[in-house]
Amino acid sequence: MTPTAPTLQRLLFVMNPISGDIDKAELSDLIKEICTSRGTAAELYNTTGENDLEQLRDKVGSNAYDAVFAAGGDGTVNLVAQALVSSGVPLGILPLGSGNGLSKDLGIPQDAEQALHLVWEHQVKPLDTLEVGGHFSTHLADLGFNALIVERFSSGDTRGPGAYVRVALQEYMGYEPVHYRIVTDQETWEGEAFMLTIANARTFGSNVVINPDSRMDDGRFELCVIEPFPATAAPGILYRLYTNDFDDSEYTRRLRCRHASIEVPGQQQALVQIDGEPMHLPLPIHIAIKPQSLQVLAPPSAAE
Ligand SMILES: Nc1ncnc2c1ncn2[C@@H]1O[C@H](COP(=O)(O)OP(=O)(O)OP(=O)(O)O)[C@@H](O)[C@H]1O
């Protein structure tokens, strides 16, 4: 353990039985075995997909957990973070999904067994969280092209990066950019966008860096706009998204703010993906940051 890290003695592990393709019974046994051998009490909760948030809030309210781990994909991390927000109880992550965006941004090992060592070797970091149209987000939300692809993915049975690229290419051909009006506490921007990301974090689970050099604890968030671009510009934009150079394109801009509202003139609702879950939200969409409202366990050496 790092000198400043508190000892975690009582833990809850929230496990999503459908996340990833590893054997959850084996992982549960491993968690119990390692924790028992180190004198740490570990309780397990399997999500059902029904009323999990209410159940977890009850558990967190009536038990003195030192930390609660989300063992699952981005949806499970969002669920557990929501149950813990403003409680002071830190969130740990055992990444099991296909994206695992927040865990990557925090530098958490992508192997669940290695990530378990966060219990004994960690630093506790405060993170901002976002409210997007009344929904909780820890990581990244967006409107436009990527939200459409996430929706196509969640309604089909295709998975994996190869399938993502295939679906994205199919949809790109007929995609019509949308006209947005964004009003923040700093400025107003109006125009067409191919994609509009609401970013508390930096990097998608796909390793696309949509919001480079940003912080998750500064009380601000970014609206990252990719404006319509000719097909010839696509390779350059894609390259910049993988090389930390989002701003180096004439088709991109970022608005940094504390609160914002997004309108689509003439439309009543919009498709939005929030931490990987697609949903239709009424317009305008109001976004606000809750500064340092979530504690997380990160590796002792994590930079930010
Ligand atoms: N026991 C369960 N049976 C069916 N669905 C469940 C169950 N528990 C949770 N879910 C659903 O799982 C979804 C969240 O999955 P999560 O994102 O954690 O994993 P994943 O889909 O494998 O990850 P990724 O999105 O990174 O690929 C939620 O929609 C939730 O309702």
Structure write-up:
The protein has 304 residues and is an alpha+beta fold. The chain has two domains: 10-121, 3-Layer(aba) Sandwich (Rossmann fold), CATH 3.40.50; 135-291, Tumour Suppressor Smad4. The protein is built from eight helices and 16 strands. The chain has helices spanning 24-37, 52-62, 74-84, 101-105, 112-115, 145-155, 161-174, 234-242, and strands at residues 10-15, 41-46, 67-72, 91-95, 123-132, 135-137, 140-144, 178-184, 188-193, 195-199, 221-226, 252-257, 259-263, 269-274, 277-282, 285-298. Strand 14 (269-274) and strand 15 form a beta hairpin. The chain is globular, with a radius of gyration of 19 Å.
SSE inventory with pairings:
Elements lengths: L9 E6 L8 H14 L3 E6 L5 H11 L4 E6 L1 H11 L6 E5 L5 H5 L6 H4 L7 E10 L2 E3 L2 E5 H11 L5 H14 L3 E7 L3 E6 L1 E5 L21 E6 L7 H9 L9 E6 L1 E5 L5 E6 L2 E6 L2 E14 L6
Parallel strand pairs: 1-2, 1-3, 3-4
Antiparallel strand pairs: 5-6, 5-16, 7-10, 7-14, 8-9, 8-13, 10-11, 11-12, 13-16, 14-15
Helix pairs in contact: 2-3, 6-7
The chain binds adenosine-5'-triphosphate.
